[in-house]
Design a protein that fits this description.
The longest helix is centred in the N-terminal third of the chain and has 16 residues, at about 45-60. This protein has helices at about 45-60, 70-75, 80-90, 110-120, 125-140, 180-185, 190-200, 215-225, 270-275, 275-290; strands spanning about 95-100, 105, 140-150, 150-160, 175, 230-235, 240-250, 255-265. The strands form 2 sheets. The protein has a 6-stranded antiparallel beta sheet with strand order 5-4-3-8-7-6, sandwiched between helices. It has a two-stranded antiparallel ribbon with strand order 1-2. About 40% of the residues lie in helices and about 15% in strands. By secondary structure, the protein is α+β, with helices and mostly antiparallel strands. The radius of gyration is 22 Å and the shape is globular. The protein is built from 10 helices and 8 strands. Strand 3 (about 140-150) and strand 4 form a beta hairpin.
Length: about 290
């Protein structure tokens, strides 16, 4: 499926309506042709690019989409600016507009770019068969994550055959301190990065079992380093537990982590930890095959 290209349009004076669709061929003021973004006084085009990218990040957190007014409030931008930015993004395929619900979603162009990144790093063609093989042996979900700043980013996942589905889909950004993949990424990061994360990482609770004390988190990371794997036992989501191992680069630092995640009623923590050798063997194969960041 091709991505719609930019089209031209004539200028027209029309009122801005918070519930109206933004059409690529319908400018919102006489000076802005075809949904183009005209920087306000004192703003550079670089400022507007940054704001547009911020809107895409916000939409990425809204699987059901959001209205222009909602996006404007969340981005803390004037509605007119948000409207113009969404117009440009819709025109070029980065955002889709849903007329029935009057909501905006990430467009196919984002999917296209994401697939290109995934293929470049080997997450699809190289990693996926290895993840599938792990899931075939465990019967449970297998997840591959990388660190993205102070979050972990799910880059690939294979669900198990069971009806209970793990919700951490590719593209999901999660906390480092409440997840097994996140703890593994922190524990086996380069020394400088690890120390910075231990000192500065926000430790917000996601459940009553989340680690929120900095000394306790430091002790947890030291334990992960000693044993070579990390666990999560309802710290990120009640009813779920997971075990993860690092995927090392040639310098001995983790550039990814690999996990098995299960509902608590299906496997005990002891049974989950028994899967560590299988995960470590898969991680070693990923380390040898994946381009290292």
């Amino acid at each position: 499926m091709s991505v719609k290209q930019a089209t031209g349009g004539s200028a027209a004076n029309i009122p801005i309506d918070a519930d109206a669709p933004i059409d690529a061929d319908t400018p919102i003021d006489a000076d802005a042709p075809a949904g183009a973004v005209k920087p306000a006084k004192g703003e550079s085009r670089t400022d507007m690019v940054g704001k547009a990218l911020g809107l895409l990040v916000l939409l990425g957190d809204e699987p059901r989409g959001a209205s222009a007014a909602e996006i404007s409030r969340r981005a803390d931008l004037p509605f007119s600016t948000t409207y113009r930015l969404l117009g440009s993004l819709t025109r070029d395929g980065f955002v889709d507009y849903e007329p029935d619900g009057r909501r905006y979603h990430l467009g196919l162009r984002i999917f296209q770019l994401g697939q290109a990144v995934s293929n470049h790093h080997g997450f699809a063609g190289t990693a996926l068969p290895i993840l599938r093989r792990v899931t075939e042996q465990t019967g449970e979900a297998t997840i591959l994550s990388v660190r993205d700043g102070i979050h972990h980013l799910t880059v690939n996942k294979v669900d198990g055959p069971q009806t209970f589905r793990v919700t951490s889909d590719p593209g999901f950004l999660g906390a480092l301190h409440t997840t097994s993949v996140g703890k593994a990424l922190v524990a086996f990061a380069e020394d400088e990065d690890r120390e910075r994360l231990l000192e500065e990482l926000p430790l917000e609770p996601l459940t009553s079992l989340s680690i929120t004390d900095r000394d306790a988190f430091r002790a947890e990371i030291e334990k992960v380093r000693r044993q070579g794997y990390a666990v999560m036992d309802e710290e990120n989501e009640l009813g779920m537990r997971a075990v993860a191992v690092p995927v090392f680069n040639s310098q001995g630092a983790a550039f990814a982590s690999l996990a098995t995640a299960v509902p608590v009623f299906r496997l005990s923590m002891e049974a989950l930890v028994a899967l560590v050798p299988l995960l470590q063997a898969a991680a070693a194969e990923l380390s040898a095959r994946l381009p290292q960041r």
